[in-house]
Amino acid sequence: MKPLLPLLGFLACSCAVAQSYRVGFEMDPSLQAPLEVRFSAEGLQGGESAEWSFGDGSQGRGAQVRHTYYRPGAYTVTVRVLGAAGQSRGHLQKALTVQSAGPERARLVVLPGLGTVRLGSAGSVIYAPSQPRFWLDGREVGPQRLALAPGVHQARVQLAGLTGTAESTVTFQSGPAQTSAAFDTEVLRLTNQARAQGWDCAARRAGGPALAPLRRDTRLEEAALGHALNMAYGKFFEHTSELDGSSASQRIRATGYAASATGENLAGGQETPAEVVKGWLHSPGHCANIMGDFTQLGAVYIRVAGSEYGHYWVQAFGRE
């Protein structure tokens, strides 16, 4: 039996524009390009709007906007709050330094399912907008979920960058697994029960502030199932995939989930939802994810005959 590392990551900054307005920034804590930043302006009144200048020649408008900085550098972000008639209500400038992530390189994320697979490129370091091209067993395919027969397969991704073409190839195995929708539902129920009870992670008992329930999300389930299958067939048990090198955040984003915060809990060997959720609640890091600032959850159980742990449990947490 192997309960394992929880994983959580996001970065947020909140800055005052004027007495009645606040501006927020959410981004990956690495601050490395290509860096997607979620900007938000809070406290806008009826008819007011926010106008953004991102410092790289691009602009946006709205209370919540996203922008990707493809190149490393120092940028000055300017936000102006405008009244209904276009008059200025206040403005703020904020410096943002985007770090280099090193040479351009491609990341291929492989998310197998039961008789299917999805290929993604989340985590690639390409300093320009680029559409990935995918191949599966020598045939060019799209990023949608694809039918897949059991066995050993080879996938490849290719992206055009500033310095040339980057590509990555992954060989992986797919096969059958026993699943349980009842187990998945019970893990979600027990997780939300702990949140409703205000589970105190330090004291390891209920009694703290209650939290809103997490909603089931099929994209998070897809990321969780893919990692569970890769661990079982790839003979590893880590948050960082030994198959394709992906992180939990990259797997979640590869499904199309536009995450502002992600987390992941893993466990192996436990045979019931009650056993696995109890173990997570009594482990500080896992408990912090269960009681974290998330809104959605993908909870997956699989059993693979002949695998190292037999039973695999994955929780993928997200907030968009």
TrEMBL record:
Record flagged with keyword Signal: yes
One Pfam family matching this protein: PKD_4
SMART domains: PKD
Cleaved signal peptide residues: 1-18
UniProt cross-references to InterPro entries, sorted A to Z: CAP_dom, CAP_sf, Ig-like_fold, PKD/Chitinase_dom, PKD_dom, PKD_dom_sf
Signal listed as a keyword: yes
Domain PKD: 33-86
CDD domains on file: CAP_bacterial, PKD
Keyword terms, alphabetized: Signal
Protein name per Swiss-Prot or TrEMBL: CAP domain-containing protein
Organismal lineage: Bacteria, Thermotogati, Deinococcota, Deinococci, Deinococcales
